[in-house]
Structures are given as C-alpha cells and as structure tokens.
Structure to design on (591 residues):
C-alpha cells in the first residue's frame, strides 16, 4: 500500500508528501485520531499530492498518516439501490442514523447495499455463452422492475461463461457466475460490482439523438418548452421562485421509469421536506409509494463542501446503471450552483487562476461533461435506455447573466427560466413564457405553438404600452390582442397544482385543449367596445378554468366545451390569415 504524510492543511484540502506513485481521482484515507477520513486526489505535483477531504478536517495535523487505496472514487452497483437515501459517498443515511444517532460522525462508512438481504436470482446466461461487459447474466425482481445482473462494465474482452448458479435466493456478495477470458483466467462474478463515478458507462451498441418528448404533464413544458427523453434542461430562478417544487412535480408525473434526485448543497430544511414527502407520495403509475422507483442522493449545505461534487457524479452513475437495463431514467440535480460554488472554493485553495466571479476557468467544461452524460442509447440486445438530466441553477439575485447559468445554457437543450414577477403573482409554474426556450419538439403542432407564442409577445408589447399611455390610449384591436395573451396565460400556461385533474394533464388532453385555445386566439371578433371585450374574455377564462378541472371526456367536460365553442362562434367574424395558412398546410400534409 502506498502511504504519505500530511505536510499542509487548508480548510478541506490536505497536502500530502507521497512515498510512491498515485493517480488523479484516487481515493485516500487520512488517519486522524482513531478515524480514517475519505478523500480524493485532485492534483499531483512531483512527490506532493493535494487531496479534497469529504469530511470535516478538524484535528488533522502535519505528519498524520495518509493511506492510498489505488482505486478511483467509485459507487457500488447492484440490486437494492431503489428506494434508498444516500449521501454523496453512497452511504445509506438511514443506516448511518441507526449507527450514529441524530448527529452523523465523520469517518463512518456503511455498505451501500444490504449484504444480508437475499434476492431471487433467475439465470439468463448458460455455460458456453460468450459475454462481454454489460451483458446480462440473470435477473432479480426489484420493485416493479426486473433488475439485470450484468457482467461488470470494465470487462471489455469476450468471456466464456463457465458456470452459472441455478435459480434461487442469493445475497449481492454471493458468486452467481464464473467466466473465463481468452487467456484462460477465470473470474468469479457476484450480483454487485464497483464503477468509478467520473467515468461514463459506455457498454452500449449505439448512442442516438433524443427525439421523443419526455412527457411531464405540465402544459407549459410539454407544449411550449418540451424536454426530450434523453435530453437536458435547466431551471434557473431566484430564491423562492419554485425550482424545487417544479422538480418534485416533474419527478411525480414525468413518464419515466426511475427518478434520481441529487440534493446537492441545498438547505437542510428543504431536503428534509423532500425526504418526508416522497415516501408518502402515491405513484400515479403503480398506486404505490413513489419512493419505490426513486433514489435520493442527499448532500445538504451543512455537510462538508467537497462531497457536493461527489453527490452529482454518484447520482449520474446510478442513472447510467439503470439505463443499461433498458429503463428511462430522470436525474434531477438541485442545485448545480451549489456544486459550482464548491468547485470555486476548492479552486481557490489550489491557488488556480480564477475566471469570472472567481469561478474556476474550467467551469464550463466541467458542467458540459456532466450534462453530456445524458442521452438515449441502444443496448447490445437492441433495447433502448435513456438518461434525462434536469438541473436547477440558483443565480444570486436571479441574475441569469452570471457564469454558472451562462455555462449551463450553452450545453442544455431546454431552458425553463423561473420569474420572480410571476412567482410573486402566484402564477404556477413560474416559468417565464417569453424568456424560456427549447430545442426539442413538443407534443403539439410546432406551427400552432409558434403562433401562440407570437400572441404572447404581441400581448406583452401592448401591456408595456398601456403602462405608459393607459388603456384609453390603445386601439380596440390592440386591446383584444392583450386580452388574448392574458387568456392564454391564465387558462393554459398556468395549472392548479392542488386540483387532482388539472395538476397533471396527459398528452391527448393537452393536444385537444390546445386546439381549442388556438381557435380562440386566431379568431377575429366583433366587439363594439373594450368593456364588451373584457367581459367576454373574463367569462371565457372562468369557463375554461372549470373546463380544465373537469374529468377528461366526462359529461361536464363535453358540456363546458360546447358552451365555450358556442360563446366563441357567436362573436367570431373570421380567422386570422396566418392561422388559416397553418390549418390549410396541415390539411395538405395529411392529404
């Protein structure tokens, strides 16, 4: 074993003189008192190595022993990950609490997977089969999924299966198969293995372009600012604008198999709320607790700062692991700003040349490499798996021009910018419809969506003008445009999170509702006064809100829809030319 001695301590960074060769990202343990504190090599200079310690460094002194493991910072992969709550180093927090009580002790590390639990293993591979990294040896049931027991991803050669155990109950550490490499060496394989968190898992046949929408059942996202399955998106917003709430609603309603939440440096109170609520939330897909298909990686702002980086990489590695089983995974990182602040702190201690706002100069490349681990892949057996990454950003004062937000916007495919103004106006979700954007295709006709966006922009221009010249200074035509934009905002962009129907809206209903909204927005009306126009749209808005909360295709739903259509037809004199062209183009394409 390679060892070293501490020669300097600067906060959570320790400088070590090494008696041998070490490598970047290698795990080391700093021995202090009767504890061994886990750390990672982040820079090597000659015979000196700088380590970031994942624990509080109180008590470490010059001359203390450091033991290098020769292994990279890794997570243990195998059955039993679902429904767990881990810290950034993959220690199960409930198990730590049982060992340490209310206050977690440093230097205590627990096996991430229960070594005593027995799993019902069903073999898939047979003696004589040729396998390689990522191939399935057998399956075990884990919740509602069949968990694939795979050949470790780092075994890249062609191996011949020599032995597979018969169907039965085994622990994660029991040998379930033996394989032989071309040189004749035999490797025993268990249900679990380790994988370094900073190395992407590439045991697939092909990487594909994300094209299919990941349905969130939030209208403003699915219609206007969609996220592709296997894509990336970010949610920047000021404090209190609803970033965490939006992520929790998404995790509950998104059409994905596995949800992984990385609470990275968020306030402890906020994380505690998540931990309390998730076991009680009912999964709309199964009727059971949502926690059964969720993993939470929890690293609050009160925990050591270095572990924030580890928690982000731990979470994305777990997501990639389940993607290798042909599942669709959603990773929600909350918040990447706290992770960037941890990087800034470590960069300062390393005395690196600072970039903008003292963030490290390599901030953009680190953020890009994280989001690049999202994607859709075709596995070697032909099945598809995906990892979708959504990260919140907490810019100081809601300033989207700061470095973390800008670095994130360069690499993500959708931007859901939360607005303090909309949040204060109690508009949910508080996504700003004029500032946000998406590069992905939504669930509705893109031409109709663009038309509706144009109404929003035109209505906003009229609203700004009315602030100067007043309502009486605008024409009736402009005022109707303003009312149309307000109608679209009130009945489609906003949802009632407390209503069981309106809280989550399926694709079929979104398309149907948006077609009606498009007809209303594109209609030309015969109003004689602004007061008449205001009364018409106020009544229409109220009817539409009742329509939104009625059960899909119920008697109430059909009655309200016919009343809405009758109201509109009574005042309609025609249709906007651009809308006529959009509808005719659609008919032509169908023909």
């Amino acid at each position: 074993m390679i060892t070293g001695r501490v020669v300097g301590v600067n906060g959570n960074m320790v400088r070590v003189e090494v008696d041998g060769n070490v490598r970047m990202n290698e795990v080391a343990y700093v021995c202090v008192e009767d504890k061994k504190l886990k750390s990672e090599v982040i820079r090597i200079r000659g015979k000196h190595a700088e380590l970031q310690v994942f624990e509080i460094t109180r008590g470490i002194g010059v001359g203390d022993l450091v033991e290098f493991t020769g292994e990279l910072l890794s997570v243990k992969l195998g059955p039993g990950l679902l429904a767990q709550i881990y810290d950034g180093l993959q220690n199960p927090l409930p198990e730590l609490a049982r060992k340490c009580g209310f206050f977690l002790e440093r230097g205590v590390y627990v096996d991430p997977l229960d070594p005593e639990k027995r799993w019902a293993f069903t073999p898939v591979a047979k003696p004589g089969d040729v396998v390689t990294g990522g191939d399935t040896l057998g399956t075990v049931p884990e919740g509602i999924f069949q968990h694939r027991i795979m050949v470790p991803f780092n075994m890249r050669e062609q191996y011949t299966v020599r032995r597979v155990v018969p169907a039965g109950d085994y622990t994660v550490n029991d040998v379930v198969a033996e394989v032989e490499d071309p040189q004749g060496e035999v490797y025993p394989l268990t249900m679990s293995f380790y994988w370094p968190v900073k190395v992407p898992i590439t045991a697939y046949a092909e990487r594909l372009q994300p094209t299919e929408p990941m349905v969130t059942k939030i209208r403003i996202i699915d219609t206007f600012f969609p996220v592709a399955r296997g894509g990336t998106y970010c949610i920047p917003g000021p404090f209190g604008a609803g970033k965490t709430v939006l992520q929790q609603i998404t995790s509950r309603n998104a059409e994905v198999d596995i949800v992984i939440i990385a609470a990275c440096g968020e306030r402890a109170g906020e994380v505690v709320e998540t931990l309390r609520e998730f076991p009680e939330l009912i999964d709309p897909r199964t009727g059971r607790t949502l926690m059964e298909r969720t993993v939470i990686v929890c690293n609050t702002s009160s925990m050591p700062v270095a572990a924030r980086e580890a928690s982000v990489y731990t979470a994305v590695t777990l997501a990639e692991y389940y993607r290798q089983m042909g599942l669709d995974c959603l990773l929600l990182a909350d918040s990447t700003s706290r992770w960037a602040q941890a990087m800034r702190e470590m960069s300062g201690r390393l005395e690196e040349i600072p970039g903008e706002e003292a963030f490290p100069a390599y901030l953009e490349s680190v953020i890009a490499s994280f989001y690049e681990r999202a994607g859709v892949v075709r596995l070697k057996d032909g099945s598809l798996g995906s990892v979708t990454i959504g990260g919140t950003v907490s810019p100081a004062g809601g300033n989207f021009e700061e470095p973390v937000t800008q670095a994130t916007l360069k690499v993500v495919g959708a931007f859901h910018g939360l607005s303090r103004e909309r949040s204060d106006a109690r508009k949910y979700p508080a996504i700003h419809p004029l500032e946000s954007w998406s590069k992905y295709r939504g669930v509705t006709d893109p031409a109709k969506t663009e038309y509706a966006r144009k109404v929003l922009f035109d209505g906003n221009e009229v609203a700004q003008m009315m602030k100067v010249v007043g309502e009486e200074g605008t024409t009736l035509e402009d005022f109707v445009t303003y009312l149309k934009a307000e109608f679209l905002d009130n009945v489609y962009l906003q949802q009632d999170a407390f209503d069981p129907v309106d809280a989550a809206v399926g694709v079929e209903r979104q398309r149907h509702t948006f077609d009606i909204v498009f007809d209303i927005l594109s209609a030309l009306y015969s109003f004689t006064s602004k007061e008449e126009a205001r009364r018409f749209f106020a009544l229409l808005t109220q009817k539409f809100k009742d329509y939104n909360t009625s059960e899909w295709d119920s008697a109430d739903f059909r009655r309200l829809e016919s009343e809405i259509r009758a109201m509109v037809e009574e005042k309609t004199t025609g249709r906007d030319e651009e809308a006529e062209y959009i509808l005719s183009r659609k008919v032509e394409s169908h023909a």
